[in-house]
User: Which sequence fits this backbone?
């Protein structure tokens, strides 16, 4: 099952897709992906309007999140290219949820704040039920998977020392295009993950190459921290990020950035410097 969001006459609407059809939730359905999953499983979505997928302009598949937790240096080849020491345990940081934007929306760069903007394709988890804290979080707690671009202002990131602000400017977390439920996506390891900029492939790896796999990340992040339904976890990016190329390849005004994970789909975002 796949879940997305669109707008119809200015109103957010849920979209569900299965092998048979693409259906649009009624306007009074909650603007909530987890509620949509329940509507499908209960059979309530069977009467929803069937629509042409090509007619839809998808927005971010979640409106917001209670927490958005990201993982750094989680692919050995990426860690090596940065010059950092491979972490002995997951390195986590927060991204502000106001940075979430749609799969085809512009990445708007505040040019007075940064000139070194980078891309990072990441497999992303949507938590489906309360877990963690004193109860270990597991794969069973993941409702769906999607793609994120952890857009990073490297000059701000490294200038601040901590990472959150430079990775959280408005529009710096393109998300989507679909949420793919765990039963359809399958094992989170073994999926191609990639980034193209203006048609040139700059990241190309496999999610099986994570240093800490998804079960290990869930166990670590949820240890002592309660995860709530709707929380998002970005699981790290592979080698090929622009800051660590020779010469560096930072995003420029007008660039088209495509980030994808096989089995989910692609983000296609244009860079606009203002």
Assistant:
């Amino acid at each position: 099952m796949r879940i997305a969001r669109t707008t119809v006459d200015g109103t957010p609407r849920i979209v569900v897709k299965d092998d048979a059809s693409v259906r649009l939730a009624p306007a009074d359905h909650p603007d909530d992906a987890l509620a949509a999953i329940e509507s499908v499983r209960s059979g309530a979505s069977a009467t929803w309007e069937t629509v042409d997928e090509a007619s839809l302009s998808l927005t971010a598949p979640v409106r917001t999140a209670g927490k958005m937790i990201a993982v750094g240096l989680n692919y050995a080849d990426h860690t090596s290219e940065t010059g950092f020491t491979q972490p002995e345990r997951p390195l986590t940081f927060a991204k502000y949820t106001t940075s979430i934007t749609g799969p085809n929306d512009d990445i708007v760069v505040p040019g007075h704040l940064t000139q070194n903007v980078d891309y990072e394709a990441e497999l992303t988890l949507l938590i489906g039920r309360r877990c963690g804290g004193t109860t270990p979080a597991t794969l069973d707690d993941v409702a769906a998977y999607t793609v994120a671009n952890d857009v990073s202002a490297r000059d701000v990131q490294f200038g601040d020392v901590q990472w959150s602000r430079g990775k959280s400017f408005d529009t710096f977390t393109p998300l989507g295009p679909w949420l793919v439920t765990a039963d359809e996506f399958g094992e989170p390891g073994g999926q191609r993950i990639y980034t193209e900029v203006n048609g040139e492939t700059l990241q190309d790896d496999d999610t099986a190459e994570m240093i800490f796999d998804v079960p290990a990340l869930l166990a670590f992040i949820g240890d002592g921290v309660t995860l709530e339904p709707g929380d998002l976890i970005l699981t790290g990016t592979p080698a090929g990020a622009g800051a660590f190329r020779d010469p560096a390849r930072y995003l420029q005004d007008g660039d088209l950035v495509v980030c994808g994970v096989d089995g989910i789909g692609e983000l296609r975002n244009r860079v606009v410097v203002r």
Residues 210 and 229 are 24 Å apart (CA to CA). The radius of gyration is 18 Å. The helical segments are 33-42, 76-82, 154-160, 182-185, 214-221.
